[in-house]
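Could you help me review a protein record that somebody else here produced? What it holds is a sequence and that sequence's fold in token form. I need someone to confirm that the token line plausibly describes how this chain folds. Take the sequence as given and treat only the tokens as open to question. This is what I was given:
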Amino acid sequence: MSVIGPLFAMTPAGEILGAMITPAVLISASGTLTLSTTNRVGRIVDRVRVLHTQAEELPPWDANDLETGEKRTHIADQIGRLSDRISILQAAIITLYVAISLLVGSSLAIGLSSAADGLLGWVPVGFGLSGAVALLTGAVLLIREARLSVQSTYAEMEYTKRMVARRTGAPLPPPHTSTEVPPLTPDFPPNPKPDTTPTRSVSG
């Protein structure tokens, strides 16, 4: 008691609490990424339910029904892509939870080390570095999932293009990239004048 008491009395409480707040920025970043990842998982679950409903509405197999066959292939492809994405998101959420735990541990270790006049200073450093590495790993996983999400969206857009072309019977026009408003042609004046020609009434 005579040794521990003076050690904890050497550092003011304000300085200890100030030092413990140091990992707060990384903890806040980890929490924000965790919330974003959870929202992504929710969107994937909603999308899977929509595809499940569409799959239940598919008619029996018919080799001559090309549209239904392509839709069946599209649903299977989307389910596979969503499975890969949700697996990555699961790993990202676990990694971010580990990062938050390590960063909170580093905050507690900083407080204990400061209260003990710098004893075991390597403990908060180890916790902090491990938490930062876990946060970086979670961010890399989210980047990978975002790339898969974009690829899945592109695949769905291509499927929609083929459906539109098949049902309209004509190829799609090229995408309109110009932002300029085309000038009005003489066939469509901006302010047409009203017809003031008197009309003759026909009486019986």
